[in-house]
Amino acid sequence: MSDRLITHLRHVALGVPDFDKQQKFFTDMWKLTEAETDTGLSFLAAEGSPENYVVRLRRAQEKRVDLVAFGAATMADVDTLADRLIRAGVRMISEPGPMDTPGGGYGVRFFDVDGRTIEVSADVGVRVHRKVEEKESVPVRLSHVVLNSPDLDRTRLWYERHLGFALSDTLMHPRMGKVMHFLRCNATHHSIAIAQCPHTSLHHVSFEMRGIDEYMRGTGRLLRSGVRKIWGPGRHMAGNNTFSYFLDPHGNTLEYTTELERLDEDTWHPHMYDFSDPDVTDQWGTANPMDEFVAKESFNDPDRGCFVAPPV
């Protein structure tokens, strides 16, 4: 898309009641690095990523998604995007301006069609990061985030129209119809996906590992530590990426993945995959079956943050 202004996914911000427990889980178990702290805030980085942080935790009375943050190439692009959103009647939270977060930068916040807070920023300083070594089972970067919506077609069209995302693939089921859209903002198969759900909520947050061996070592480390596995290990057909899904202490689903597909955007045509085909859900056949119990966990709790801007 020639006029696409979003370049990539930056981070996800979560509000959690048991802040200390969640912070310990992300650092001790999930192997993120605490880059900076503030009163009731923790900024968590991935070792191989130049982003200052890929997860922000905030001490909150209720569990919620505070925001999903994306990057833009320039401050002028942020201004252009904000102007487009205002003219289209999108509900804004803030005007474009300087940001007081690690890395600084220039950004804007607004609500998506489901009421999630979205942030787009540019001119953000980069973090000193490093190459993740062989056999090191720590996340390299944030891979993607999947969002639950009561109307996935409406939400897909909103992201395409207002933020320039493109459809990569769709999952469908013979009895349920379309169940998930995969959307991209660059050549990566998806930075976000929209899943059909009775309510607005977080489906899962995914983290890229160095390779297959590191992905499996990370999966095994979590299993040995007693972290509850929901689904996996396996390899999806849409995106061709590996998957192992676990629950964090607040019931959010997190994923270790690797080898998410890169597309030739000039020639790519979206597929419609039948989710009832076992090869679509898991090409390897190694994961536990996808059933109503796995799906229920991915529905998560209804998001308390809809159309309520986070305090920071």
TrEMBL record:
Presence of keyword Oxidoreductase: yes
Every VOC domain range: 8-123, 141-259
GO biological process: L-methylmalonyl-CoA metabolic process
Keywords, ordered alphabetically: Dioxygenase, Lyase, Metal-binding, Oxidoreductase
InterPro entries to which the protein is assigned, alphabetical: Glyas_Bleomycin-R_OHBP_Dase (IPR029068), Glyas_Fos-R_dOase_dom (IPR004360), MMCE/EMCE_epimerase (IPR051785), VOC_core (IPR037523)
A single MF term (Gene Ontology): methylmalonyl-CoA epimerase activity
Pfam family name, one: Glyoxalase
Protein name: Catechol 2,3-dioxygenase-like lactoylglutathione lyase family enzyme
